[in-house]
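TODO from last week: model MerR family Zn(II)-responsive transcriptional regulator of zntA.
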Amino acid sequence: MYRIGELASSFKVKNDTLRFYEKHGLLTPSHRSESGYRLYTEQDKKILSFILRAKTVGFSLADIHELLSIEVDKDNNACADVKIVVDAKLEEVERKIAELSHFQKSLKQLSDACCGGSGSAAQCTILEALESDINNLRPEHHHDEQE
């Protein structure tokens, strides 16, 4: 059995992290000591490891909760169930990358159009572009949502 501090330090996280995961239903101490300390088992340690690895690849708490529910009941779930969660996350990441790429191109255009001189900002091409043509600076998918 591990106390909360022991388990947290073995993964180099804070006690509050474990409490946070507990609050969100991802990790539950298997036992409590007579004095009320949270006590975790090897299985709890494996679950925490799973949670932390899932966080590193970008899964949200909701995603992790869903993956854990599949993990706990593997025999009654299909590999396809896991793939659905992963593919949804992949699609979300691809959308974010496309959006960031658009932001990058827009910012690059703004930066390239500006002389960056010490003159008055009254003639700044960046400010002019932001004032006059804000629609060209929006990510592509925002236009789709408006149609």
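Done. The mean pLDDT is 87.
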